């Protein structure tokens, strides 16, 4: 099981690394998000469309946005780690 | 899959919200039932929510030179059932809409349908179908296909709202699906791999709550 988990982790890291290396070699830059591309496609299909609501609040700048994304990831990862620890300890305590 | 704030016409936005509402209500009922009847499963609810929270914060590069993100709702659907993921997915979407201007309140209903309803239910169905054949393949494919299903739903929602002037809905769907699909395939594979890893870790800790999962049923 340890071995399988190690291989799975390597597969994931390999997949992301390949995705970073290959497009750059092909001359791609920026790694634009698909959600943004979809919004651009909307303005191509219907140039007169105006969004009828604006976000209540927008992160001031890309730096703050990436900060908030990392906060989201950190909160989730922290909770995940805590719960795994709790479950591990509980199953240990349950052993005779 | 986050349709940006204001980027669905009011009628569409309202329609998807009305459709999403019963799923969220049923999800709340399901979470209450889990907490009452299976209090030992409480940590699993947290794991499912936390996993979706982490994964949907990761904007991963794809071989197409674009980036997009996993959703993390597929694995949760296996742990605690697809209905409860309707609520947990919505919480993630709300966080991103309010704090990150990623998605939006007007498009929340549409985004809940794609990420918190279609994704989890597809993942759950795939798992149920493939479970007798191979447990880990079932986990892998359910997370991967749940992810793809979410993005195809978004493409459908956008196509219905913005049909192509010449080729109509079908043409618009091809365009939107074209933006998402290719980029999403490697990310879906990645989400599948990660989900098997996390399920392995959960099973290794021999969490008694998970016996139902490995023995072929959902637990709650």
What is the number of strand segments of chain A? 0
Strand order of the largest sheet of chain B: 1-2
Report the total helices of chain B.
Answer: 8
Put simply, the count of helices of chain A is 3
Computed CA radius of gyration of chain A, to the nearest angstrom? 21 Å
**Which structural class is indicated by helix and strand composition of chain A?**
mainly alpha
Describe the largest sheet of chain A: none
CATH fold node name of chain B = Arp2/3 complex 21 kDa subunit ARPC3
Instruction: Tell me, rounded to a whole number, the average pLDDT of chain A.
Output: 90
Shape of chain A: extended
Average predicted local confidence, pLDDT of chain B: 91
**How much helicity do the residues of chain A have?**
over 70%
Q: Helix/strand/pairing class of chain B, anyone?
A: mainly alpha
- The dominant shape of chain B is globular
Strand tally of chain B: 2
Secondary-structure element order of chain B, N to C: HHEEHHHHHH
Strand content of chain B: under 5%
Separation, N- and C-terminal Cα atoms of chain A: 24 Å
Mind telling me the C-alpha Rg of chain B? 17 Å
Low-confidence stretches of chain B: 215-220
Summarize the structure.
Chain A is mainly alpha-helical. Chain A has 3 helices and no strands.
Description of the molecule:
The complex is a heterodimer of chains A (96) and B (220). Chain A is an all-alpha fold and 96 residues long. Chain A has helices spanning 2-25, 34-45, 62-94. Helix content of chain A is 72%, strand content 0%. The model of chain A has no long low-confidence stretch (mean pLDDT 90). With 220 residues, chain B is mainly alpha-helical. Chain B has a single domain, classed as Orthogonal Bundle (Arp2/3 complex 21 kDa subunit ARPC3), CATH 1.10.1760. Helix content of chain B is 72%, strand content 2%. Chain B has helices spanning 10-37, 42-55, 73-80, 82-99, 108-130, 135-161, 168-204, 211-214, and strands spanning 60-61, 67-68. A two-stranded antiparallel ribbon of chain B has the order 1-2. In chain B, α1 packs across α4 (82-99) and α3 packs antiparallel against α4. The interface between A and B is large, with 60 and 73 residues.
């Amino acid at each position: 099981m340890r071995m399988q988990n190690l291989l799975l982790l390597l597969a994931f890291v390999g997949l992301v690394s390949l995705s970073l290396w290959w497009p750059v070699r092909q001359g791609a830059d920026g790694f634009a998000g698909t959600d943004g591309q979809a919004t651009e496609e909307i303005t191509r299909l219907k140039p007169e469309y105006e969004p009828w609501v604006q976000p209540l609040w927008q992160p001031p700048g890309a730096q703050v946005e990436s900060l908030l994304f990392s906060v989201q990831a950190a909160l989730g990862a922290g909770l995940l780690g805590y719960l795994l620890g709790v479950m591990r300890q509980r199953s240990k305590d349950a052993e005779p | 899959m986050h349709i940006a704030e204001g980027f669905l016409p009011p009628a569409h936005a309202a329609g998807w919200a009305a459709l999403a509402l019963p799923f969220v209500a049923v999800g709340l009922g399901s979470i209450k039932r889990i907490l009452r009847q299976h209090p030992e499963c409480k940590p699993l609810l947290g794991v499912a929510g936390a996993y979706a929270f982490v994964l949907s914060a990761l904007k991963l590069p794809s071989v197409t030179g674009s980036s997009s993100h996993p959703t993390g709702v597929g694995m949760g659907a296996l742990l605690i059932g697809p209905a409860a993921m309707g609520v947990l997915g919505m919480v993630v979407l709300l966080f991103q809409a309010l704090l990150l201007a990623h998605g939006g309140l007007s498009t929340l209903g549409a985004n809940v349908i794609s990420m918190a309803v279609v994704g989890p239910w597809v993942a759950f169905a795939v798992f149920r179908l493939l479970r007798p054949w191979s447990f880990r393949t079932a986990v892998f494919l359910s997370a991967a296909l749940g992810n793809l299903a979410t993005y195809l739903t978004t493409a459908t929602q956008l196509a219905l709202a913005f049909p192509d002037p010449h080729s109509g809905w079908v043409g618009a769907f091809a365009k939107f699906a074209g933006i998402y699909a290719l980029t999403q395939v490697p990310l879906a594979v990645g989400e599948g791999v990660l989900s098997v890893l996390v399920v392995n870790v959960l099973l290794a800790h021999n969490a008694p709550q998970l016996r139902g999962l490995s023995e072929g049923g959902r637990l709650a």
